[in-house]
Amino acid sequence: MTIGEGALSSAPEAKFLGKSAASVPANTTLLRLRNMRLHRAADMPVSLHKPITLMWALGRIACEEHHQVRWVQFRDEVSPLLDKFGHEKSGVTPENPVWYLRTDGIWEVDGLTTADDRVPSVARLDAVNPLVGFTAEAAADLGAPDVRAAAVGYLLTRYFSHADQNALLARTRIAPNDATDPSTTKVPVPGTGATDEGVPPGKTSTKTTRFKRDPAFVRYLKDLYDNRCQVCDATMRAIDGRSRSEGAHVRALQEGGPDSMDNLLVMCATHHVEFDALAIHVTDQGDVVATDTGETEAHLTFRPGHGVNLEHLRYHRALCVRDEHPDIPQPPHKGPL
Ligand SMILES: [Zn+2]
């Protein structure tokens, strides 16, 4: 398969509540990202080579590394990602995204031109070994955490809703898997100011175990919201003094909901329990409604880089409000607690 030949196409657009696909911050790089054209060969799904390459490049920026590398490094680092996260039938051809991303206005391959702008051969790329990566303008835009979060959320939601998002975030180093594992975090020992690694004699070591380790994309989303509940804006505090929140699946995993960002809301414990117990539900407009009274209690807050698939919200709502969605079959559910 070759990018740049055959039909160009965008991935099918799902409907979202939130700011992931619908409205990203007014920013040139994000707009160009949204307008990115992807290759689709006949009888094949849209190629993920460009989105995978961009995730890798965003990981470099998240790690505060230079936005461009030599081709050989790009080839060695991106090829395994294309192999793991690309479509099964896609070949591993890093020369395609590295070359054709230039046409989207956010990427450059320094000092290499070809006749008719055709993709250069791997041998030529190896010989010239050009610098490749984001343009300086795109890198500067994406250096801002909120813009970068919007870009990551957009790519994840639009192109990787069925992928292993945890593995993708970890492998691209956007959200390393072991960065904030609470079970290994050294927390202050009360009254001593010491960590449990340097506990003075006679003092007892303290570790937090209340909050189990989250998958990478859940932690990414919690960070995006600074652990603030999307319903009430409250944050919880753990024994180590850090703020905490919970990730609430909209459509439960055991009812076929995907383990992905567009099926997740960040909540405090109270609203998480109420949501799971069907005591509250969310309208297509983001109003949080009490199921028993029908009264609107709050409005969901969304931050750029996150959106929830309306199909999942409707599924949850159908469990709460009978008859509202006769088209959705009533699934087996425990019902209100
Ligand atoms: Zn709350």
TrEMBL record:
Coiled-coil regions listed: none
InterPro entries attached to this UniProt entry: DNA-SBD_ScoMcrA, HNH_nuc
Region (Disordered) location: 176-208
Domain of life: Bacteria
Pfam family, one: DNA-SBD_ScoMcrA
Residue intervals of the ScoMcrA-like DNA sulfur-binding domain: 28-175
Boundaries of every HNH nuclease domain copy: 229-282
Protein name: HNH nuclease domain-containing protein
Species: Embleya hyalina
